[in-house]
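Hi L.,

You mentioned the student needs an example of a multi-chain input paired with its predicted structure. This one should do, with 481 residues in total across all chains.
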Amino acid sequence: MPEINQQLSLRFAGDDRLSDKMKIGQFLYFIELNTPPLAQPYDSAIALTINQAKEFNKIPEVTAISITDRLLTEKCHDPVETATRISKVIDKPIIMALSGKGSSFERIKTHLATAKSNGINNILAVTGNVSDLHPYNAFSKLREYENGYFDSIDILHMARKIDKDFKLGAVVSPYQYTPEGQCLQYAKMMKKIACGAQFIVTQSGWDMKKAQELLWFLQRRQQSISVFARIPLIHLDEAKKLADGYQEGIYIPIPIATKIMQMARQDLDTFLDFQIDRIALQVIGYRTLGFSGIQFTGVRNPSILKKIMDKIHELEKIYPDYNSWLQEWNNNYNLTNFAPLVAPHYLFKNLLQKDICEYKEKTAIIAGTALPGPRVFDVLRNFVISLAFSKRMPHFVRNFVSYLYRYSPQKMAKLAPCLYLNHRICPKRLVHGPCGSTQPNGFCECEDRTCFFHRVLHLAAFKKDFSLLEKDDYDSTKSSN
Ligand code: SF4
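Structure written out for the whole complex:
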């Protein structure tokens, strides 16, 4: 079993059921249930979710129930209340997501404090995708959102401050096909680990080369952390709307979306069987590659989960190792282009090769990709502001430079993690690194242009210091909170 599964460094207290299972390298299954939207009366909606949770709780393979926060809409009921009520009727651990979407310092702090007193110990910190309440201007561009986005980095810091025994998780989006997108996502993941994340959940994806790339990256950096793959079950109504290859929060490659839509025209059983076969083969792949488990999303019916688990057990016997699974995966998907680009970027050249499952320095060949240089104005701006904010400079210089760039000195100091570049072009006004919703081609989730953080990366590359992107520099930003 690859080193990634050996959870040696976790030290948890309190409810250790989940972490104990992670420590022994058991392959785990989480079921994702949504906190009900405000549009539904809470009592009836939660009754339905509780019933689902009770049924999933009876399935032996299910290790934990994962409760989402503001996943499809910001107008959601309280995730802590939802997690607490479900935790009372099941005997398995709960993982509660906490989303920064439309969240204030007070919301996150209150939810964390209540979660702690209600015995909810496993927290998954997410920044969140663009809010349905985020306002647009007259030109259909997103305006500044007053409620803002509380970065997952800030959530992790606050959680650690409130209770050192919280078991903290974070999200990564490995399905990025530009060198910038891949590098930025991994840098932010490293920052999350530095901030205390003890397990990682990936965004949903189909490209198993990207799954192996993520593990090889972590193994290369000697990070022994549990990584869980999020796998979606697409519903018939959703499948019929996949024409553009993109579903809310889940990137679906065009060939896969086409196949799903074709199958959706058949009867429901054929459509379901097709999905169950695909999911089970992917689960076997994640397992053989060294992932610690799976988080299923979109599985609402326990009987479907039982069918998925039966299929997984069947395939485990047929494909007991990496090479046998790889052959079957290639039989099905070798000709499928998972990337939205003509020349997709992969960090390593020899991914998904026969006999090469684990990362080894001698065999993993890094694909060196040159990055474009930074903009001249970005270099100048970074030089001037970094100098003004260096410790040896008197305060009046700092104040003067901040005035020149139309920021208060406190707000300017908060821009240190994005190398003092103007983050106003990021619709979420993030500074610690990109959100997990960046499109696979490097474009912003919300607008038709590249993610703001590509410029930050180009500047860091120019300064020959990528550690600037991974550094936990929370202290420079917390003053405004
Ligand atoms: S600019 Fe980047 S970080 Fe900001 S919202 Fe767009 S994709 Fe996310």
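You could point out the following to them. The chain has two domains: 3-333, 376-480. Residues 1-13 have pLDDT under 50 and may be disordered.

Best wishes,
N.
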